[in-house]
Amino acid sequence: MEYTLHLGKDKKIKKLIDHNGLFTLKKQKNICTYLCASIMSQQLSTKVADVIYQRFLNLYDGQEPSPEQIVATAPETLRAIGLSNAKVSYVQNVARFAIEHGMEHSRLHKMTDEEVIVYLTQIKGVGRWTVEMLLMFALKREDVFAIDDLGVQNAMIALYKLDRTDKKKFREDMLRISKKWSPYRTYACMYLWRWKDNPPPLKNL
């Protein structure tokens, strides 16, 4: 994989590559459903999020619903599967935006990463981090750096001995280090997340 040769120039990332093997990105067909699932999962454990998402699909006979079906679903029905009032509103905002403005692959494919972020964060309830995850894991964009992600931050603090006391300097340090990972920063983030979940011995990094 070409990205491993490039990222492997960073000795700390190379250790993570050697420890965790290769990652691949896959496109998700239904962008609307992906965004809805992302909103549902916020501030929840993976296990709880999976249960709620399955309940959501069960409302539509186990199939991914169309935006029109989501908008037509009564708010109380969505609340009954475990969604807060705010999340019900945000999920329906996403579906309404998909109907009125579109979020098909063909439309988003023509946009740069930053243009996709600007376009989709118009939706109330959809923030920059959520769209960055969508860019990575639904649109298969290889050079996204999730600078605000806590897992990425914690891994970089540990691996590169960064200090977050001065927030401005901290962000500058993260950007400086991440520049050498481009154009494969998405994969670098994946390795940093894997360090957080399953860290190899620090003495080897």
UniProtKB/TrEMBL annotation:
Record's catalysed reaction(s): Hydrolysis of alkylated DNA, releasing 3-methyladenine, 3-methylguanine, 7-methylguanine and 7-methyladenine
Organism per entry: Niastella yeongjuensis
A GO cellular component entry from the record: protein-DNA complex
Family: Belongs to the alkylbase DNA glycosidase AlkA family.
Record-level Gene Ontology MF annotations: alkylated DNA binding; DNA-3-methyladenine glycosylase activity; DNA-7-methylguanine glycosylase activity
Keyword DNA repair among record annotations: yes
CDD domains named among the record's database cross-references: ENDO3c
PANTHER family in the record: DNA-3-METHYLADENINE GLYCOSYLASE
GO biological process: base-excision repair, AP site formation; DNA alkylation repair
InterPro entries, per the entry: Alkylbase_DNA_Glycosylase/TA, Alkylbase_DNA_glycsylse_CS, DNA_glycosylase, HhH-GPD_domain
Pfam families cross-referenced by the UniProt entry: HhH-GPD
Keywords: DNA damage, DNA repair
EC number: 3.2.2.21
Protein name (Swiss-Prot/TrEMBL): DNA-3-methyladenine glycosylase II
Keyword Lyase: no
Domain HhH-GPD: residue ranges: 40-197
